[in-house]
Amino acid sequence: MTGAPNRGSGWWITDGWRSGHNTDGHFSKETWSYSWSVAHSFRWYLENARSGLTAKRVENPSDLQIGDVICYDFQGNGVVDHTTIVTSMIDGVPYIHAHTADSADRHYDYSNSLAYTPNIRYYFFRIDDMFN
Question: Residues in domain Putative amidase (predicted)?
Fold first, then answer.
């Protein structure tokens, strides 16, 4: 993880998340980066990171492996709304786990979701095996 304690930099979380809640139930400041908890920020982190957790964007879902990441722009407006992790590959097709509506081994395209729209855009990221 890199960038702490600058919330707008890197991808990180600190031990403060365990006890870092305010009285209104929200996290105290600077216990996690935006890319740690905001799907759109995580997409841009993956797109640009050169150290720590790094990834390469690929065009085809068949280029993914278990542990890789798929980002979803449901409206097709350039804002990533959701992120999942590939948990299995079957005949070159990624299947994912998600937690918004708990699902396991769901087809990556989300076509059976209420969030799906015909404008959906996918961003496929191969997570690098080595960390810098």
Answer: 27-124
In a domain, residue 3? The reply is no
The answer to whether residue 39 is domain-embedded is: no
* Sheet with 82-90, edge to edge strand ranges: 55-58, 121-127, 69-73, 82-90, 93-98, 103-107
Instruction: Please list, in sequence order, all residues whose beta carbon lies within 8 angstroms of the beta carbon of residue 19, skipping any fewer than 6 positions away.
Output: none
In a domain, 78, yes or no: yes
Query: Which among 23, 30, 24 is positioned nearest to 6, based on CA atoms?
Result: 30
**93 located within any domain:** yes
pTM score > 0.85 for this model? no
